[in-house]
């Protein structure tokens, strides 16, 4: 891996000891452990934030809206008529 950026982190002695012991258990360096844990946490957070979550009531309302009868507004009706004319030509 080519280093392209540096990130310094200050820890108190207790935090450093905790990370050092965990890194040893994983068979890696503290830097490798912190990098891996931070990346995993960031990916999880970003994945969660990219999803829309709804309550049961909200889901039912959304589902009804997308599966319900649709009636185009006047502008869309005109566009559909115009598109049909172009298609026939």
Overall description:
The chain is an all-alpha fold. The protein has a domain at 10-67. It has 4 helices and no strands. Helix 1 packs across helix 2. The longest helix has 20 residues, at 30-49. It is elongated. The model has no long low-confidence stretch (mean pLDDT 92).
Q: What would a concise description of this structure say?
A:
This protein has a domain at 10-67. It has 4 helices and no strands. It has helices spanning 13-26, 30-49, 56-67, 74-88.
Mean pLDDT: 92
Distance between the termini: 60 Å
Structural class determined from secondary elements: mainly alpha
Overall geometry comes to elongated
Order of helices and strands: HHHH
Count, helices: 4
Question: Features of this protein?
Answer:
89 residues; mainly alpha; 4 helices; elongated
SSE order and pairing:
Elements: H1 13-26, H2 30-49, H3 56-67, H4 74-88
Helix pairs in contact: 1-2
